[in-house]
Amino acid sequence: MAKQKLSFVCQNCGNVTSRWQGKCEACGEWNTIIEENTAGGIGGGPQRGSLRKGKPVALLPLSGELEEAPRIRAGIAEFDRATGGGIVRGSAILIGGDPGIGKSTLLMQAAAGLSRSGNRVVYVSGEEAVAQVRLRAQRLKAAETDVQLMAETNVEDILATLATDRRPDLVIIDSIQTLWSDLADSAPGTVTQVRSGVQALVRYAKSSGAAVILVGHVTKDGQIAGPRVVEHMVDAVLYFEGEGGHHFRILRTVKNRFGPTDEIGVFEMGDSGLREVANPSELFLGERNAKAPGAAVFAGMEGTRPVLVEIQALVAPTSLGTPRRAVVGWDSARLAMVLAVLEAHCGVRLGQHDVYLNVAGGYRISEPAADLAVAAALVSSLSGMALPSDCVYFGEISLSGAVRPVAHAAQRIKEAEKLGFAQSVLPQAAAEGQKMREGITHEVESLPDLVARVAG
Ligand code: TYD
Ligand code: MG
């Protein structure tokens, strides 16, 4: 019998304390700590009577040839790109996202694609009954494929079933929050259960050579253990994101032991499932009103891929004592920095103005290279003068007001030219050899240069 050991575990970050607290000391979240019996779960394990000896092997095989990791591809280009060129056999992948964002839809389509190319795929659904999964598959035109379904939530049962059948190439577990193991005493969805379930499935992936995809809901209230607590246990972590009101979704790689991170796959949610978006820039710039003041096009990069998006700013006189700063799709701390640099080095006073900043289409930018486009949009809105509609902006702004070069200038310019842009405003240091072939390249050295250009 495992010894009873009660601990208090934060459902957000997994931190263990010996007594209950309202606020987790490790991650600062409130009301996320619940009591769990962690005997054998966290850090524990069955005691072994005898020790088993292993044998180390050479890092490089004698022949000196390194094999490329064997991958299986879904035939959905955006999905395969995000996984780093296909799913590596024997690896465990976590796909996280808000409930209802389309994780099950994406994975059913990927399962159908993999099955069509001759892979054996088992889809384990703990959230929906087999009949419901079938209905969805019919809607996604995936029903005629050879995907095997299983409605099961007990980890030991899942592993036993997988062991009796022909070895699958891919197992999809939807979702980790429904998993429960006989070996842990806590309720399903708690950190202890999710961890021990994921641990067993990762072990299965390594020993059998089948790839395992784990679906995890991202939860903000912290009542159910989120994907964060298992991120370090898996080989790759992808997040499926999108804004509520918008129909496009982005599959973003944040960790990948077998490929590049920062890659994205772009999809559009429609009536018959997710459709690939091969050229995201066209989508993000689709509904642009180029003649309005306060809009600037940023030439960004997502991993190896250039993406053009419109940044919209609205600067309006405030009626409040403390002016409002609201940002959607960008970092509010960076906006504060750009505003401070505009005020200190360019004499642009915004202390009496509300500032709203929005990245069009519900897209999120994390690159500092967007600074220059944000500054251009802000000055354009304040001065009421629209920016040239055929111009793109990129460059990082430093606290001294200097405009610093950013990586991949040539690729950003190439994408802009492809979409019909004829002018670019970019850091001076980046402009060497990176000029627009047909159009005009404007080099700016500092933020005052840009303000002079925008405000005329
Ligand atoms: P789902 O894949 O169930 O989300 P998750 O598994 O991440 O919780 O997707 C749910 C949403 O997607 C739901 O609101 C309906 C919508 N949807 C479509 O718009 N078109 C479709 O073809 C499908 C299957 C779902
Ligand atoms: Mg689902």
From TrEMBL:
Keywords: ATP-binding, DNA damage, DNA repair, DNA-binding, Hydrolase, Metal-binding, Nucleotide-binding, Stress response, Zinc, Zinc-finger
Cellular component, GO annotation: cytosol
Residue span, RecA family profile domain: 68-218
GO molecular function: ATP binding; ATP-dependent DNA damage sensor activity; damaged DNA binding; hydrolase activity; zinc ion binding
UniProt-listed Gene3D superfamilies: 3.30.230.10, P-loop containing nucleotide triphosphate hydrolases
Pfam families hit by this protein: AAA_25 (PF13481), ChlI (PF13541), Zn_ribbon_LapB (PF18073)
Region feature Lon-protease-like, mapped onto this chain: 354-456
Record-linked SUPFAM superfamilies: P-loop containing nucleoside triphosphate hydrolases (SSF52540), Ribosomal protein S5 domain 2-like (SSF54211)
Domains (record comment): The middle region has homology to RecA with ATPase motifs including the RadA KNRFG motif, while the C-terminus is homologous to Lon protease.
Function summary: DNA-dependent ATPase involved in processing of recombination intermediates, plays a role in repairing DNA breaks. Stimulates the branch migration of RecA-mediated strand transfer reactions, allowing the 3' invading strand to extend heteroduplex DNA faster. Binds ssDNA in the presence of ADP but not other nucleotides, has ATPase activity that is stimulated by ssDNA and various branched DNA structures, but inhibited by SSB. Does not have RecA's homology-searching function. Plays a role in repairing double-strand DNA breaks, probably involving stabilizing or processing branched DNA or blocked replication forks.
Protein family (similarity comment): Belongs to the RecA family. RadA subfamily.
Protein name: DNA repair protein RadA
Organism: Aureimonas endophytica
Gene (name only): radA
